[in-house]
Design goal:
It contains five helices and five strands; from the N terminus they run βββααααβαβ. By secondary structure, the chain is an alpha/beta fold. It is 36% helix and 18% strand. A five-stranded parallel beta sheet has the order 3-2-4-1-5, covered by helices on one side.
């Protein structure tokens, strides 16, 4: 099962494998179970990160969503393979955002569409 959360959530449940899908974790986060899946989850080749483009107002939510979902689609096989190799019943995709708009949800959208893993629209706290 795949769920989501923020780095700032309570990441102490030993039954959950916490998997970072951010470019990098916050300073001071040194949790053994964090795996950084940057190659497939973070678009590269931009002069600014996609999230920075959004945060700076260079692109809107719709354009961000379109670019990010296209990136995931191009990397579908890699994304699926990276998740599949994680040995855990429950995987929590984590990144920095605490807001209602985050790429974690876009990843869940794609995972639901691809229908390879069980996805739950719930976040741990």
């Amino acid at each position: 099962m795949i769920i989501t959360g923020s780095y700032f959530s309570n990441m102490r449940d030993s039954s959950i494998k916490y998997v970072s899908i951010a470019t990098y974790p916050p300073k001071g986060v040194s949790i053994e179970s964090i795996d950084i899946l940057k190659p497939s989850f973070v678009p590269s080749g931009m002069n600014k990160s996609l999230w920075r483009l959004y945060k700076d107002g260079d692109i809107g939510k719709e354009e961000y969503t379109e670019i990010y979902k296209e990136h995931l689609e191009r990397n579908k096989d890699i994304v699926i393979a990276e998740i599949a190799k994680i040995n855990s019943t429950v995987i929590a995709l984590v990144c920095w955002e605490r807001s209602d708009f985050c790429h974690r949800d876009l990843v869940l959208d794609k995972l639901e569409e691809w229908d390879v893993f069980e996805v739950r629209r719930e976040a741990y706290r």
